[in-house]
Amino acid sequence: MQYFLKEWSFRGNAEFSKRNGLWWRPDNFDPNDIGTYVPFAQLDSDLVQVNQMLKYIKFGFGQCMDHACYDLRDGRIAREEAIELVKKYDGKCSERYILQFCNYIGITLEEFWRVANQFRGPMWIKKSDGEWHNTYWDVLEEQQRTMPSKVS
After folding, report:
1. How would DSSP label each residue in 36-82?
2. Which residue would you say has higher pLDDT here, 152 or 109?
3. Whole-prediction pTM value?
4. Is 11 contained in some domain?
5. Cβ proximity of 102 and 109 under 8 Å
6. CA-to-CA distance for 66 and 55, rounded, in angstroms?
7. Which of 92, 118, 146, 152 has the most crowded CB, counting CB atoms within 10 A?
8. For the residues of 87-132, what is the DSSP string, one character each?
9. Does the pLDDT value for residue 97 go beyond 70?
10. Contact at 8 Å (CB) between 82 and 71?
11. What SS3 class is residue 152?
């Protein structure tokens, strides 16, 4: 709706809600726990964090990407800051949320990762150290190297 109604914005709605009683995360929350820097995200359930991490595994982007795009379009952050936020937090999820999910559906952590890794999108490669690498970042870094600098 924000495209049509500029007053209907992601952050504007959250700030309105906070003024009217919504409790946000504390200022010192760890964005790595929930996969985004936004303190008013994922407040209604501890399963949203897992859902967004699985979105990242499957599609190569998670909720931090969504939030950075909103803030970038609103002029709240620059492109370079958006990229750094996404690289730092996208797809992160505290193991405690994953364990809560595993307990809820009755599986082990090992079973969770075995199944989740089967659904990794084609943008993922496994490095020699066993860590997963998102090749979308390689494309982005190449674009940054070849993009002309902005002149002020």
Report:
1. SS-TTSS-S-TTHHHHHHHHHHHHS--HHHHHHHHHHHTTSS-HHHH
2. 109
3. 0.85
4. no
5. yes
6. 11
7. 92
8. HHHTT---HHHHHHHHHHHT--HHHHHHHHHHT--TTEEE-TTS-E
9. yes
10. yes
11. coil
Is 23 contained in some domain?
A: no
Question: What's the mean pLDDT in 20-33?
Answer: 94
Q: Is residue 9 part of a domain?
A: no
Q: How many domains are contained in the chain?
A: 1
What are the beta bridge partners of residue 126?
132
Q: Is 130 left (phi over 0), alpha (psi -120 to 50) or beta?
A: left
How far apart are the C-alpha atoms of 124 and 77, rounded to whole Å?
28
The answer to whether 117 touches 57, Cβ cutoff 8 Å, is yes
% of the chain surpassing 90 pLDDT: 73
- 42 assigned to some structural domain: yes
Can you give the length of the chain in residues? 152
